[in-house]
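Structure tokens
________________
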Amino acid sequence: MVVPRVQAAIASAFGEEFRQMDPVIRPSQFADLQVNAAMALAKKVGLPPRDTAAKIVDALELDGICTTVEISGPGFINLTFDGTWIEELLNAHSSGAEAAPPAGPRRVVVDYSSPNVAKEMHVGHLRTTVVGDSLVKVLEALGDTVIRQNHIGDWGTPFGMLIEHWLEIGEDSPEAALLVEDPMAFYQAARAKFDASATENEGFATRARLRVVALQAGDAETFAVWQRLVAQSKLYFNAIYSMLGISLTDDHIAGESSYDADLARLCQELEDRGIARISDGALCTFPAGFTGRDGEPLPLIIRKSDGGYGYGTTDLATIRYRVRELQADRVLYVVGAPQNLHLRMVMATAREAGWLPDTVEATHVQIGNVLGEDGKILKSRAGTPVKLIALLEEAVDRARAVIDASRPELSEEERAVTARQVGIGAVKYADLSTGHDTEYVFDFDRMLALSGNTGPYVQYAAARIRSILRKAAVAGVAGAAGGTGAAPATAIAVVEPAERALALHLLEYDATLRKVGEHLEPHRLTGYLFELAQLFTAFYEQCPVLKAEESVRQSRLALCALVLRRLSGGLELLGIETPENM
């Protein structure tokens, strides 16, 4: 709302090269908003901060928007908005008008989740799945065409071991059912046989290695078993996605196997063009700017010395496919932070090969670790990665205990639904409210708290508004929206300070979404929703709604309905449901 006008004023006063400054804008006790752009800009333009602020103010075009614009302190700009302008803009939002999406919507490919076939999804998969799904929802809301890509691990050496184990136990055996019920147990059983190869089980290891060759050669029996393994794992993945409310489907799967037929040609092309060369028996690229501790160029291995292919090969084929075939303008890799060096080398090689032109943006959305109370990567008591499904089930169980105690009057079905919404929402919100590239400590008590920047706090604010609107409808208030969040027909009047603060924050919703899409930071949206819930609480405490006189009541009901729409809509973009009751 304000940032583009400030940026335009900066560009007008000091030149276009300064337009991209992101001024700090916050509420002030002296005005509606305070802009802090002058102090950051002053050093760059060689003027005192107050003089810098004065030049910005002179260039600001705020006729009809602000009643006063003042410079305060060392160089702050205080803005007081015209009440009529606030009401007009707010009522446009209330009637359903939304800000236009950014110009030039793009085709965006988002690579996220990426579990492995025949392996358990653990807590390490939580963040890439949740962050990735939120980003695709926000980008779609901004008008981009988003192509989801679930790059599952479904190819390579381990599958010889897994296929041979499947054939030994038989598809109707209880052990085969573990692929859906407990994938890690299935994998570990196969691994145990393979590792025993030095002693009593050498025949299994030999057969497993031969199975890899048969799979890569397209042997019909081996390929059919591989397909069964993948199909069974999909059932498990989908159960997790359903529980988490993730929008990935089987149609979005683009596993490592998808690119197998292209890998030999890819390596040959890089070698023929002089981009790749043999080093210590392996075919490698040496992208510029990457060196090891000894200062020597760092290799990206694209064909191992034994002739096999690794992640570097597959990832190059992936990025080439996404640009050439999917026509991506932007490619996002929502992947763990430890993969940063690898992905940067892949992108650099792809650019050198011309597969990733300068017109296409490729970004690694780095995902930090989930930690336990000891500050180390979260693990089970046995020292193994925490199973994701077990973690989610515990979240729901904990939420159910709270709901049972606080809302015993709700039906069994209502309490079960609410517990799932609150428990899963708490886990997702806690993850998304932390910068995606930073670590955080997993703490159920904090996540499920009804105070602070938590999912339940924001959900409770929405549930409270639904209750207000239902009571208004029951009382026969004309135009009341019930619990739906649809706006009553009455225009909103902004009179009290709490109404004004709430209204100004509501007007920042679209700008917040654009920032999330630009910077790929969902925590900006959680921060917005938390502040919105806080401002609504202050409004509700200071401004009676149902007991107000008729015209004021109608206005405040309309304001409540708009807040509910923003809370529930924002939570939906985070992949979090809004309970009817809490």
In short: Residues 3-81 form a domain with the Gyrase A; domain 2 fold (CATH 3.30.1360.70). The chain is about 50% helix and 10% strand.
